[in-house]
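ugh finaly. both done.
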Amino acid sequence: MINNKRYYSTNIPSGSGAPVKSNNFNSYLAGLFEGDGHIWIQNPDASDKKKHNPRFCITFGLKNEPLAKKLLDILESGFIRYKTKDNACVLVVSPVVGLKKIVYLINGELRTPKIHQLYKLIDWLNKHHNTNIEKLPLKDGSLANDSWLSGFIDADGSFSVQHTKVENNAKKRKISCRLRIEQRMLDPVTGNSYLDVLTNIAKFLNCSLLTRIQKSTDNEYYTLTASSKISTEILVNYLDRYSLFSSKYLDYKDWREIVLLILENKHYTEKGLTKTDSARSTMNRNRTYFNWDHLNKLSA
């Protein structure tokens, strides 16, 4: 059953009927970082005499520059670096005040091998800036109870709507909605596996976890595709509560409309077919208009 209630605030009053949440932004930022981020720390044995602060970085496709700028405003530290050849931009935080804020926000919210990058940053702060920050362990609570997965989907997920005919020259059609998530099997820095977290995501979404090898690089990836009625209903209930904030939010809104038609068995009506083709024509690379009003709901 679809739950139409929506919660965006990071501090919901206890009398509102919703559980009090104080870390929605924290877990969202953690998921976003674990999908598309990294922390660079200068090698202490480097010959370069000039010492550089660590850099906390999250990479975005250039069309998601508004989200990068919004996060920069919230963090109040850092800058945006542009990689025009890659059609990308990078949120970079390097001032100590900003690095401390990042640690405060995501420490205890991470779920993947990238926690070791955070631990190295904590070691650096404790050593060079007289802090005594505790390294909190991997979070193992339910994915249903915070925004981590929405951040991870914003980084590594993609929504699609398929509308195909089946059998040669048959009139029968097939319409389906999918969320696909892909992540390397092994962390390139530590060699640790992403199996546990991807298995948890697959279990939460009631779908299978598969593997594939990228022929051009021989890199191995975990992949999962959520497309069944059960899976898509779980996703709608989750993402209506814990919003996406990249341009994928707009794809999700179109995707959601078709999911609801499928759940109500109205997708093969004339109206349903028209909506399906309309959604397909504006999603992902076909999107030319972007409304970023949903960023007004993002705050720490």
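ok and the 2nd:
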Amino acid sequence: MFSLHQFKHLTSAGFARRLSTSTRSPRILVTGSLGQLGSTMVNTLRSKYGQENVIASDIKKPTLAQRSTGPFVYADVLNYRSLDQIVVDYGIDWVVHFSAILSAAGERNPALGLNVNINGFQNILEVAKAHKLRLLSPSTMGAFGPSTPKDDTPDLTIMRPNTIYGISKVHMELLGEYYCEKYGVDFRSLRYPGIISADSPPGGGTTDYAVDIFHAALEHNRYTCFLKAETRLPMAFIDDCITGTVQLLEAPAESLTQRTYNVHACAFSPEELAQEIRRQHSKDFVIDYAPDFRQDIADTWPRTMADVAARKDWGWNPLFGTSEIVRSMLDKLAPVYKNAAIASQSQPTSAELPPAAVTAN
């Protein structure tokens, strides 16, 4: 039997542990952390919650620089036991689930797209259920389809996508909402537009042209686009996407009126983007058009999306329009190509090299 003094001591200790747990920074697992969004998201969360509280994970090998910024673990989302162990070992509270096969890549390999996007998400959802985790798993404008209204597409509307990526994301949205209602999983999602970033290479999406075009403009002053000139799509700069994702991740549950939200920053076509590049970079920039299978995907997507609920419920407020995106991309990438050109010019020609160096290959 406990004495009254011992009972009070144990009760106080238990209360202190609960208080400590409730006031400490959340421990966050980011899957797909080496992708376009993942790497930036990890850095943003670490600056806010501390390096050791954000666990980066992927199936690829990180660079030395990526490993040096905080914990990294190998995590295959198709392996439930591995995910479960990571959550237990690191005391995870929140999960940001970026692991996915994107639109164009999913059409090239449908079986892989279905496996990763559906079975991988199922594993993440089950782990969230078992350990009462907050789960944010982004969706996409690709969840809409050819019969969806194209302009000011609302949050709730016809959703009949005809791509593996879109189908898997509709499945994700509905299953996440089901687990929220049935099991109390704190599931959250936002439908990204095309995302533009200078920090990492494109990841196999249909809007990749809006990143490739800047590299081509700076290196060759010419670009061949795989979409038609007039194909207008919703877009956002990565800074706005990361800010919005963190806002939704942190939002109090009681402020959310739905589980999945549209987010929209601006919209442009390849020709409109090219015109802005000419205005800010080079009036001689040339864009050619050679549409491929990605045109069929883009034709099923919205031209603009309505995001009133995101703005009202958790403060979505993008700062970058088309002009600001172009300026930022050029400012970030121009020094890279300038330095590469200088390095190339400083390399000795074969005539200048000693004989051993010339024949080394």
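summary for the 2nd one i guess: DSSP finds 14 helices and 13 strands in the chain.
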